[in-house]
Amino acid sequence: MSYNILKGKRGIIFGALDENSIAWKTAERVFEEGGTFVLTNAPVAMRMGAIKELAAKTNSEIIPADATSIEDLENLVEKAQEILGGKLDFVLHSIGMSVNVRKGRHYTDLNYSWSEKGWDVSALSFHKTMQVLYKKDAMNEWGSIVALTYMAAQRVFPDYNDMADNKAYLESIARSFGYFFGKDKKVRVNTISQSPTPTTAGQGVKGFDGFISYAEKMSPLGNASALDCANYTVSMFSDLTKLVTMQNLFHDGGFSNVGVSQEVMDYFVEE
Q1: How far apart are CA 199 and CA 150, in angstroms?
Q2: How many folded domains does the chain comprise?
Q3: Residue 5 maps to a domain
Q4: 244 within some domain
Q5: How far apart are alpha carbons 162 and 271 in whole angstroms?
Q6: What pLDDT digit, counting tens, does each position of 3-51 carry?
Q7: pTM of the full predicted structure?
Q8: Out of 67, 141, 148, 255, which could bridge 219 as a Cys pair, Cβ 3.0 to 4.6 Å?
């Protein structure tokens, strides 16, 4: 169901890869709610995905950009404003990558150059993006910037590896930059801590199938889907949440506040 709550709003959506990705679902929902946007991803990711299909479906243009490159980000922000006809109202940062995870390096045996690359892509790119937006005064007042994160930033999930560190850093950036963006520009900055979601990136984590089943049993409402997250993100882009900022918002069916569920206890109790 569409409520047209983003009518007239303009933005940038990072990270749409394929129809399984949260950024992809968010782009579809933003379009349905009347928002306009440009899509962006790293050139290598664009070759792997189907972003052109999404662009056609949502009447959007694509601007390739390496989110770790200030030069690319500056070009992205300038061109986005030209294409969309003015300052931006929303930005979604939906980017994450760990070379150590991809190559099966255990957390106790990290390749630090790979760690630095993953940190740059997954976390520091959020600061770089906001710094460019801030310096170029590219956001309208009461605009909304959202990044996607995961609960491994607060609790240990062994196979999430150095991505947990990246997400913790990402959330800190949202708070710290959120203060200055709010005080100086009246722009809000938040992170959404999503349930484990079977995206292309998520399924690359070791033991993902078992973990998503566990989370489903732990969460009173069950796991939130990519579409559910897209709907929540749309609400964060809208004027309905204009005074919410510097928050890490758990969107996980209640998982984050459950010590143990009856279903999990039943599984371990011998009959």
Answers
A1: 13
A2: 1
A3: no
A4: yes
A5: 39
A6: 999 999 999 999 999 999 999 999 999 999 999 999 999 988 777 668 9
A7: 0.96
A8: 255
pLDDT in tens, 236-255: 999 999 999 999 999 999 99
Select from 13, 19, 15, 57 the least CA-distant residue to 37.
Answer: 13
Where residue 138 sits, what CATH number does that domain have? 3.40.50.720
pLDDT score of 214 more than 60: yes
Identify the residue whose tokens are 């986005």.
Answer: 80
How far is the C-alpha of 168 from the C-alpha of 200, rounded, in Å?
21
Q: Specify if 211 maps to a domain.
A: yes
List, in sequence order, every residue forming a beta bridge with 61; answer none if it has no partner: 38
Query: Are the C-beta atoms of residues 178 and 191 closer than 8 Å to each other?
Result: no
pLDDT bracket for residue 121 (50, 70, 90): very high
Query: Degrees (nearest 5) of the Cα angle 129, 30, 194?
Result: 65
Residue 271 pLDDT > 80: no
User: Residue 52 corresponds to which tokens in the numbers above?
Assistant: 């052109």
- Paired tokens of 180: 């200055």
Amino acid making up residue 161: N
Direct distance between the N- and C-terminal alpha carbons of the chain, in angstroms, rounded to an integer: 46
